[in-house]
């Protein structure tokens, strides 16, 4: 098991009466790509800034390589930060921007030249040494900002929405390049974003945050397939969420009565009579003109939307709730306004407890 390189222990952050980070406990392994994911205002950037040393924790302890950094200045923490705004020096060329950190540390000139050359090669920007930032594209500026951070050989690289200012195509390209770079160098990345697709494609683990609390911390596939609360199910990917009451619990197979009919799902630790939510991914839904044997609920097709790679079908349940189904192709036997039957494999859905504590934190 890899050792912990960054640890937050009972960390709180207050801004006046605003409690933005609440008793946060987190361990990040050496060489890990961990993403803090959540909506604006959830505390993810504040958490990153406390690790970097740009904000002081109101309570708790932050450790880097097993040592407290609470009393250390940002430059003493062996971490570097890459911001969305790049923060390049406009009056300096690319070479001087990257060389700035080593020069401050009095690194010999010959070593700086070798290191800058290596960084430019790593970020595929060889030949751009003499250009000024205003002569670079957004993606090129981002690469230089990353090179400037990496030349200091940080044990941890903190990235605060670094791709947020890029267009969609370039953003996806940079996601791939960043992940490849991280794997090649073996540096620990702590990455902040509100973009769930970005988090899913890049991360070893994701910490989903809401209101200053980590609701779920796990591998991307586990968070996607097994969300632990309604908020995570709704925030990650595209889900249909149905509410109901368990009428039968046989081992891990649950029969649930919803307002639109009786359905089935699989999950352990649920009891008869318990109120639960069921999360079903849009790609897990099936729709047919005839009822299926195991279970199905009636619906009416509202419309179809072609998204290029998939077709999304909007369906209206008997209680008026709208759900969606994603398929690679539109079924030629189905049409708008048609009465159909909707079902899914029980193991392709996730039952979620609705106890008081979870309902309050995951609404």
Describe the structure.
The structure is a single chain. The chain is an alpha+beta fold. It is 25% helix and 36% strand. The chain is built from nine helices and 20 strands. It has a six-stranded mixed β-sheet with strand order 6-7-8-3-9-10, with helices on both faces. Strand 7, helix 5 (168-185) and strand 8 (188-193) form a beta-alpha-beta unit. Helix 2 (94-104) packs parallel to helix 4 (138-150) and helix 3 (109-122) crosses helix 4. It is elongated, with a radius of gyration of 24 Å. It starts with a strand and ends with a helix. The relative contact order is 0.11. Mean pLDDT is 91; it is low at 356-363.
Short description:
Helices cover 25% and strands 36% of the residues.
Question: How do the strands and helices of this protein lay out in sequence?
Answer:
Blueprint: E1 4-15, E2 18-29, E3 33-37, H1 44-52, E4 59-64, E5 67-68, E6 79-83, H2 94-104, H3 109-122, H4 138-150, E7 156-160, H5 168-185, E8 188-193, H6 196-202, E9 205-210, E10 213-218, H7 220-225, H8 230-235, E11 239-250, E12 253-258, E13 261-266, E14 275-281, E15 286-288, E16 297-306, E17 311-316, E18 322-327, E19 339-343, E20 349-353, H9 356-361
């Amino acid at each position: 098991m890899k050792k912990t390189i960054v640890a937050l222990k009972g960390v709180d952050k207050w801004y006046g009466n605003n409690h933005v980070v609440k008793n946060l406990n987190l361990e990040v392994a050496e060489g890990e790509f961990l993403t803090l994911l959540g909506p604006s205002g959830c505390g993810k950037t504040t958490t990153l800034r406390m690790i970097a040393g740009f904000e002081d924790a109101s309570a708790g302890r932050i450790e880097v390589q097993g040592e407290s950094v609470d009393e250390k200045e940002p430059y003493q923490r062996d971490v570097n930060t890459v911001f969305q705004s790049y923060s390049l020096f406009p009056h300096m060329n690319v070479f001087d921007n990257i060389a700035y950190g080593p020069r401050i540390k009095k690194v010999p000139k010959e070593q700086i030249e070798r290191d800058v050359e290596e960084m430019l090669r790593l970020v595929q920007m060889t030949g751009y040494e003499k250009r000024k930032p205003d002569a670079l594209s957004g993606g090129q500026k981002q690469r230089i900002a990353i090179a400037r951070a990496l030349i200091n050989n940080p044990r941890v690289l903190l990235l605060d929405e670094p791709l947020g200012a890029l267009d969609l195509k370039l953003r996806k390209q940079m996601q791939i390049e960043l992940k490849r770079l991280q794997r090649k160098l073996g540096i620990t990345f702590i990455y902040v974003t509100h973009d769930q697709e970005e988090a899913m494609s890049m991360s070893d683990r994701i910490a989903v945050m809401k209101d200053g609390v980590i609701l779920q911390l796990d591998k991307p596939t586990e968070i996607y397939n097994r969300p632990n609360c309604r908020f995570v199910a709704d925030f990650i990917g595209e889900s249909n969420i149905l509410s109901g009451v368990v009428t039968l619990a046989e081992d891990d197979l649950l029969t649930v009565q919803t307002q639109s009919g009786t359905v089935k799902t699989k999950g352990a630790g649920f009891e008869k009579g318990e109120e639960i939510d069921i999360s079903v991914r849009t790609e897990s839904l099936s729709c047919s003109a005839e009822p299926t044997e195991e279970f199905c609920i009636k619906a009416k097709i509202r419309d179809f939307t072609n998204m290029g790679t998939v077709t999304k079908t909007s369906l209206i349940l008997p209680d008026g709730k709208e759900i969606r189904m994603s398929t690679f192709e539109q079924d030629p036997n189905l049409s708008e306004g048609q009465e159909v039957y909707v079902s899914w494999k029980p193991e392709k859905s996730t039952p979620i407890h609705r106890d008081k504590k979870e309902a309050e934190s995951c609404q």
